[in-house]
Write a structure and sequence with these properties.
Elements (H helix, E strand, L loop, with lengths): L1 E7 L6 H9 L6 E8 L5 H6 L6 E6 L4 H11 L4 E4 L5 E2 L3 H11 L5 E9 L5 E5 L23 H7 L10 E3 H7 L9 H10 L4 E12 L10 H15 L4 H4 L5 H14 L6 H16 L8 H4 L1 H8 L5
Parallel strand pairs: 1-2, 1-4, 2-3, 6-9
Antiparallel strand pairs: 4-8, 5-9, 6-7, 6-8
């Protein structure tokens, strides 16, 4: 069985389509867990219209997307888990094709696919082919970046090409071993993906099987400095986990090639100083025996706000 978690918040114009795209899957062995995170529009009324016995509904006060997802994850009973944002939809055969990949490739632990990027009217804007196009920021010398390697994990470190929690389906053991989403407003999906990549085997399916909606109310379109801080946090937190891929040996030619790839691949939007300071402080805290010290910078509002003062936006 696949457990699908939909975190819902004030998406009355989209939530019905998200629900229907799940219940209408050609692979029907699933449960749908909808966590309404304190919506103040008509989302709850729309959710209540669906009577399919596979649905579990939970209503809670607003706590943020990561908290809504985590509550759904604690309820999930399936062998596989998928998350669908309430403004996105699935291709009808998404689950059937992904389950087939899991069944034929036993070592695969997480699957993402190409993405059909749509607008508020369901019109296709473009097809995002993983790390091969539609990057979140300009890349000057693409052939010199990790994109030229075709390596899923290095490209995941370079940018969040998966783009959305809606584009991940993973085995239950992954969630049980690395935990759920952390307290990130914009990049909880990227953080989760990198934690998976550090320990498990991801797979990119070269077919667009999820519709990712871009519209004026997308969270990432607001509060740019906060988003850039989280990008810096992501890099400071995760880069050490990929050391064996970034610098596999000490041969001169390897060092030169990988230094070039790293410098061409990483773009901190002028905030290298923030990444450096975060990396140093996280390292010091680890030496002091603090577990997951990077979370201090997420959970302490005063500390985070001080960093935001120095973010170049």
């Amino acid at each position: 069985m696949i457990s699908v978690v939909i975190p819902s918040y004030n998406h009355e114009q989209y939530i019905g389509k998200a629900i229907e795209s799940t219940l209408g899957q050609s692979y029907s062995d699933l449960e749908l867990i909808i966590i309404d995170d304190g919506s103040i529009d008509s989302s709850r009324d729309i959710i209540n219209k669906y009577t399919d016995e596979r649905i579990t509904r939970v209503y809670q006060e607003n706590q943020g997307a990561h908290a809504a997802i985590n509550r759904g994850l604690t309820i999930a009973k399936g062998e596989y888990i998928s998350i669908l944002n309430s403004d996105d939809t699935y291709h009808i055969d998404r689950f059937k094709e992904c389950i087939n990949i899991f069944d034929t490739n036993g070592n695969v632990d997480l699957i993402s696919t190409w993405i059909n990027v749509i607008n508020e009217h369901d019109k296709t804007i473009g097809i995002k082919k993983a790390w091969m196009n539609m990057e979140p920021w300009e890349i000057a010398n693409r052939k010199k970046t990790f994109a030229s390697t075709g390596d899923y994990k290095l490209n995941a470190l370079m940018s969040n090409f998966v783009s959305t929690t809606s584009n991940m389906i993973f085995k239950r053991k992954v969630y049980e071993e690395i935990g759920g989403m952390r307290n990130l407003r914009f990049t909880h999906d990227w953080d989760f993906l990198l934690r998976v990549c550090a320990r498990y085997t991801p797979y990119n399916h070269e077919k667009s099987l999820v519709n990712y909606r871009i519209h004026g109310d997308n969270t990432i379109s607001k509060q740019r400095k906060w988003m850039l801080f989280e990008v810096c946090w992501i890099m400071a937190t995760h880069v050490d986990s990929f050391a064996s891929l970034l610098l596999p040996d000490v041969k001169e030619v390897t060092i030169i090639d990988n230094v070039e790839k790293m410098l061409e691949s990483f773009n901190f939007q002028g905030n290298e100083h923030v990444v450096q300071l975060l990396s140093w402080q996280i390292a010091i805290f680890k030496q002091k025996g603090i577990i997951n010290p990077e979370e201090i910078f997420l959970d302490n509002e005063k500390i985070r706000n001080k960093f935001l003062e120095y973010i170049k936006g």
